[in-house]
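Self-study notes.
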Amino acid sequence: MKQYLLIIFVFTTAFLHSQVSINTSGSAPHASAMLDITSTTKGVLIPRMTTTERNAINGGSPETSLMIFNTSTNTYNYWNGTAWISMAAGNIKELSDADGNTKVEVEKNVNEDKIRFTTNGY
C-alpha cells in the first residue's frame, strides 16, 4: 500500500512541474516558461467573445490575468482581479473613464494638433 501511494505522489509532482513546447523544430521549452510557443508563420489566437459572454466567465469571478478578445468592443480585455481592463493598442488617441464622459483626446481630426479635455461630458 505504501509503494502505491509513493508512485502517485511522484507522478503528481512530475506533472505539476512539467512544461509544454509547441513548435515544429522539436526544441524543448525555455527554462523560464510553462508554455513556449514558437513559430515564424503563425500566431496565437486568443479566445473571442462578446462582453456578455466575458462577464459570465466562471460566474463573474475569473482568475486574475485572464485575457480575451472582446468582439463587442474590438479590444483585448484582461481581468485584474477586480475588474475587466481594456488594453489599448496602436496609437492611443483617447483616454476615457468607464462611461466615456470624462476623457482626453489627442488630434480628433487629421492634422488638427489639438488636445481636448472633457469632464462630465463637457
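Second protein, same conventions, sequence then structure:
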Amino acid sequence: MNTKTILNIKTDKELKKSAQETAKELGIPLTTAINSFLKQFVRDKEIIISASFKPSKYLLEIIDETEKDKKEGKISGPFNNTDDLMKHLNS
C-alpha cells in the first residue's frame, strides 16, 4: 500500500529556486528538507526559525577599520563605570 501523498503549496518562485539550490548544495532533494521540517513541526508542535549571521562586506570593512583605530590608540575605553565614561566625555 502506498502511503505517500502530494502536498501542493504556493511559494515565491525565487524562494523555491533558492531552496532547490540550497538542498542540492547539501546533497539532498528539496522533498527531504520539507519532510524533515514537517516531521519536526508535528513532533514538537512548534516552528523554530533560525538564522545564521553573515556580516556584509561593508560591515567587515567597518570592523577592520575599527580594529585598526583601536591598535593605533584612536579609540577610548573601555570604561569600568559610568563615572569614568562621563569624566572622559567632559574632558
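Instructor comment on the second fold: The longest helix spans residues 30-44.
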